[in-house]
Amino acid sequence: MSELLTGSVAFLFTDMEGSTGLLRELGDDYAVVLRDHNALLLEAVEGHGGRVVDTQGDSFFCVFPRVRDAVAAAADAQRGLAAHGWPQGARVRVRMGVHAAEPELEGGRYVGLGVHRAARVGSAAHGGQVLLSNAAASMLGDSKVELRDLGAHALKDFEKPERLFHLQVEGVPQRFPPPRTGRRRSRRRWLVLAAVVVVAAAIALPLVLTGGSSGVKVGPTSLAVIDPKTNKVVDAIDLGFKSRLIAAGVGYVWVADPGTSTLVKIDPKSRKIVSRTAISADAIPIGIAAGLGAVWVTVQRGQTDDALLKIDPDLGSLQSTLTLGHLSAGLGADLVQTGVTVGGGFVWTVENAENRISRIDPGTLERKVVTRSLPQATDAIDFGAGGVWVGGQNVATRTDPQTGATTATAPLGGPSDVAAITVGDGSVWYTASADTVAWRLDPANVQPRGTAPVGQGPTGVAAGAGGVWVASSVSGTVSRIDPRSAETVATIPLRAAGGVVVRDGLVWVSPGQPTTARAG
């Protein structure tokens, strides 16, 4: 910048939230995200008389002659970011902070505590939020800007707490947790967390797994992590519950608990639980998927209907809800199955109450029912190899994603429900709840290409990391199948196995409840 503003100025700090996760999720498309992000911010800043002082990656440091200009630029930037069409349906969220100060100039740059305080205000915000310091808020005068007083919060490296204000930006979601200062957690929250730890410790009966000589101790409610290089369990994460509802995407591994309607977020790098978030007080999770910038959970609401929830992967907050349909009369909670997956830029659901597949726009949640005539569908669903693949009673079907026509049907060897299905390594793989084999289909002609033995009660299947992995709840095992020969090359015994996903080169197995196979 050729000339720095002097005297009393307004600083605006911005930073993209979850950028590392976006990079992992989007790959080459992240370059497009960064380019458009920078263009939107630069347009908003310059449009209100501001100047960009410095940029580092996806972070901006800007200066304005007046606070109201900085606030207007931040609001415009947030609206532009929220309305922009991002690659793969990603959601880009940027945290912003505004502070007023009279900084010092040294060596052609701003220095002093005012700059540092402005940066701390920005880092206290959540993605999509704009926070103002007390100094900035007091300089708005009779401006029509709407602020919400969040009280005093301790900022890192500052002894005196800072009074923070939330800027209400019209047209942008405005529900956020408390500022990210790491303090001011309620005593009740700590008591709840302590109770969870005590209960988990009481029910976790340690067991040394025999999937190798790793010596990893896990309990019956632990998520097992398997290294495909050795076929050994290398870590265990105690969830405190059993569930086959597991997904991987938007940078994390996710497990939903139907018992407490809780969503657990796990960092695949550190293998630590990041958060436990309530999904819905009046709904039971029955399906989960992750991708296209969100976590997607299908739920049953009482005995009336089922719905799709869109959950923010960073905050864990509910973004929107789509009612899928009313349940058939007399359909019990143990029979309701609504599966969900992502692929081809859309979210897909299969609803066995209506035997239909729906295609859902991830941004608008606009829904199109693509077919209504599935043969007794289950919740097994995946997208790939030219179609939407869905399980049924004694069959697996391929549906054209555009026309909704059922283009192929593959029968099983005996009457049983398809429990899980996945597309990967050039084949379609599925398992049946009353069988002890995994079926391999050629997606081109939908003809069987062999079976591989697996454990009893298979409930989950995933392809990747050099294998096809089948979790079996009755036998409590994970079977590894060679995707080329369709032969079972390893069996890893676990205390409990329900769902399975592959993420960051590792295999993640949730501790599912043993199921009673339903035969036709």
Overall description:
This protein is mostly beta strands. 15% of the residues lie in helices and 44% in strands. The strands form ten sheets. The protein has a seven-stranded mixed β-sheet, with helices on both faces. The termini are far apart. Mean pLDDT is 82; it is low at 183-213, 328-335 and 515-520.
Descriptive labels:
520 residues; mainly beta; Alpha-Beta Plaits; Methylamine Dehydrogenase, Chain H; 2 domains; 7-stranded mixed β-sheet; 4-stranded antiparallel β-sheet; disordered C terminus
Unreliable residue runs:
183-213, 328-335, 515-520
Count of domain modules: 2
CATH class wording of the largest domain = Mainly Beta
> How many runs of DSSP E, i.e. beta strands?
39
- CATH domain fold name of the largest domain: Methylamine Dehydrogenase, Chain H
- Principal-axes geometry comes out as elongated
* CATH architecture label of the largest domain: 7 Propeller
Structural class: mainly beta
State the major sheet: 7 strands, mixed
Specify the CATH homologous superfamily of the largest domain: YVTN repeat-like/Quinoprotein amine dehydrogenase
Mean pLDDT: 82
| Tally of alpha and pi helices | 6
What is the percentage of strand-forming residues? 35-45%
- Strand order in space, largest sheet: 2-3-1-4-7-9-8
Distance between the termini: 73 Å
Please give the radius of gyration in angstroms.
26 Å
Fraction of residues in H or I helices: 10-25%
